[in-house]
Write a structure and sequence with these properties.
Layout: H1 13-32, H2 36-62, H3 74-80, H4 96-115, H5 122-131, E1 151-152, E2 156-157, H6 173-188, H7 194-204, H8 219-229, H9 234-237, H10 255-260, H11 265-276, H12 283-298, H13 304-311, H14 320-330, H15 338-348, H16 357-371, H17 375-384, H18 389-404, E3 420-422, E4 431-433, H19 434-449
Antiparallel strand pairs: 1-2, 3-4
Helix pairs in contact: 1-2, 4-17, 4-18, 4-19, 6-7, 6-19, 11-12, 12-13, 12-18, 14-16, 15-16, 16-17, 16-18, 17-18
Length: 452
């Protein structure tokens, strides 16, 4: 498949938004004119019609013909991938914990930095930096947060994202996914089934807080849990009425599988496939396999770009994601900073969803190619590219952190966390010691590598 094969002209986003807004305003206006009952009937009919159209979209996607270049079973994915180095290490490396700390604490730093400006445009972020006289691209955490004091992710607060205010890795779904992977492995082992994974998710993830109004999960993950609540069986719940099957979300869950299979990218990708297939398809799944394999390979190489090259060997070579990653490497000489990267990606995928697996994966690639082993440049440039930039910066930081080890991550990115992370999963306490999590991943890594 080639990128030119997916050309389309989408309905203008704001046109649809305005239509929904007009419905709300007309309903209010009708009530003011004494016609509330009739307005409610119109709204109910509108909702019913929209529900039917969404069902039609779901049917359209679910019955789409198979794409030979983008297979959906693990066996077919293996058949479609290029030749590669499937395993780099026979056992857990002696420096595992140093690399793991660099990766997890690095992930926390990248996520925290990006969360302050998530989904902001390049121009908005630059203006933000000028407003508060911040160095840009950022070389440290932001000193100010939007909507200060607002709740986030059930137990957190936006003030936790500010330089000088944080005392632990602030809570986020992107860090919770690393923990849910650990819990899944501890409870069910690497042979976990969709039903077992679903049970672990249901028991642990709060969807929404009635107390403070914050959400615990978004997009396809929220839809998956809501479908489970409605009694849909796990093997269908992740895809039913889910337009996010090629989103970035699944590959924010990738790190746990790389941690559990250090130096064994093929196994990390296999575990990632099982996880992502729960509620993603095609490039949404490949993105997770690619990132998990990159994290895994990072435990065995000295250059982050090499980890990306090895990871590319674990996904279908003609898929849109693989084609995009190869393109990013090919044009990297044209990219001198975040602006070049953002411009080139937006030109190549002009209508792609801001949370798509592909465009965001290329920001990770460009960030790593720009910064190499320079952790600060990698996270700063990646955040500055925009889109889902807490996810992209977290993953880029994780790959670099595992490559260079904690001792080579500048201390100002990790010392504010004081070796702790905040959590909202129900099976775990609100505050966790990073070293304790590391020891638990060591046990899982020994278990997984010992099964060879």
């Amino acid at each position: 498949m080639r990128v030119q094969d997916i050309g389309y002209t989408p309905s203008p986003k704001f046109e649809l938004d305005h239509l929904v807004d007009d419905v709300r305003r007309y309903q209010s206006l009708a009530a003011e004119f004494g016609r509330a009952e009739e307005a409610d009937r119109i709204v109910a009919a509108t909702r019913e019609a929209l529900e039917q159209k969404l069902a039609d979209f779901d049917e359209l996607v679910s019955t789409a013909p198979a794409e030979p270049d983008e297979p959906e079973t693990l066996a077919d994915i293996h058949e479609a991938r290029p030749q590669g180095e499937r395993r780099l290490l026979a056992e857990v490396p002696e420096d595992y914990l140093s690399r793991w700390r660099g990766s997890l604490l690095g992930r926390g730093a990248g996520c925290t930095l990006g969360a302050a400006v998530e989904f902001w445009s390049v121009d908005q972020m630059e203006a933000w930096g000028r407003q508060f006289d911040e160095e840009y691209p950022p070389t440290d955490f932001f000193s100010f947060a939007r909507l200060p004091g607002s709740p986030r992710y059930i137990v957190g607060n936006t003030d936790d994202l500010r330089r000088g205010r944080m005392q632990y890795i602030p809570v986020d779904d992107d860090t919770a996914y690393t923990l849910i992977g650990l819990l899944t492995l501890e409870e069910h082992g690497p042979e976990f089934t969709p039903e077992q994974q679903a049970a672990t998710w249901q028991r642990n993830f709060p969807i929404h807080s009635e107390e403070n109004g914050s959400w615990g999960v978004f997009w396809g993950e929220r839809r998956f849990l809501q479908n489970l609540q409605q009694g849909i069986e796990p093997r269908r719940a992740g895809r039913h009425r889910n337009p996010n099957v090629q989103s970035i979300a699944a590959w924010t869950r990738a790190d746990a599988w790389g941690y559990a299979a250090p130096g064994w990218p093929e196994k990390a990708a296999e575990l990632a496939f099982k996880d992502a297939s729960l509620n993603h398809r095609r490039n949404g799944v490949y993105g997770t396999m690619f990132m998990a394999a990159a994290v895994s390979a990072a435990f065995a190489v000295d250059e982050p770009a090499e980890a990306l090259e090895i990871a590319l060997q674990e996904i279908p070579k003609e898929s849109l994601l693989a084609e995009g990653v190869r393109w990013a490497f090919d044009v990297s000489s044209q990219v001198s900073d975040y602006r070049d990267a953002a411009r080139l990606v937006s030109e190549r995928y002009p209508h792609m969803f801001e949370g798509h697996a592909i465009n965001n994966a290329l920001y990770v690639v460009f960030g790593i190619l720009l910064g190499g082993r320079d952790f600060t440049r990698v996270v700063g440039e990646t955040v500055a590219m925009g889109n889902d930039n807490d996810c992209t910066s977290a993953t880029a930081a994780s790959i670099v952190g595992a490559t260079i080890g904690l001792e080579n991550v500048p201390a100002h990115w990790t010392e504010p966390f004081q070796g702790r992370m905040q959590n909202y999963l129900r099976d775990l306490p609100e505050f966790l010691e990073v070293d304790d999590i590391g020891e638990r991943f060591v046990r899982q890594a020994k278990e997984v590598l010992g099964r060879s």
